[in-house]
Write a structure and sequence with these properties.
The protein has three helices and two strands, in the order αααββ. By secondary structure, it is mostly helical. The chain has a domain of 38 residues: Glu-tRNAGln amidotransferase C subunit, N-terminal domain (Histone, subunit A, Orthogonal Bundle). A two-stranded antiparallel sheet has the order 1-2. β1 and β2 form a beta hairpin.
């Protein structure tokens, strides 16, 4: 059984705030999900081949061909800031 205390803990981990009504609704929804997963665990899947997708889809990649491109100097020519041959950007991690 999923309690309101469980929902409050999950909400805390997710850094979201929930009203009393939302907590009750979410507790019922999560309980339904847990019951459904329990039903799925009862299935015999020994004869089922593992798969990552239901359709036989493969990635299609082009050939990696070297082609003419910009030099480092050309790529950095319009950069507002550069340092040691690279684009210089503002620090985003403190």
């Amino acid at each position: 059984m999923i309690s309101k205390k469980d929902v409050q803990y999950i909400a805390h981990l997710a850094r979201i705030s929930l009203s009393e009504n939302e907590q009750e609704t979410l507790a019922k929804d999560l309980e339904g999900i847990v019951k459904y997963v329990g039903k799925l665990q009862e299935l015999d899947t020994k004869a089922v081949e593992p798969t990552t997708h239901v359709l036989p889809i493969n990635n299609v990649f082009r050939e990696d061909v070297v082609r003419p491109s910009l030099t480092q100097e050309e790529a950095l020519a319009n950069a507002p800031a550069k340092e040691a041959g690279s684009f210089k950007v503002p620090q985003v991690i403190e």
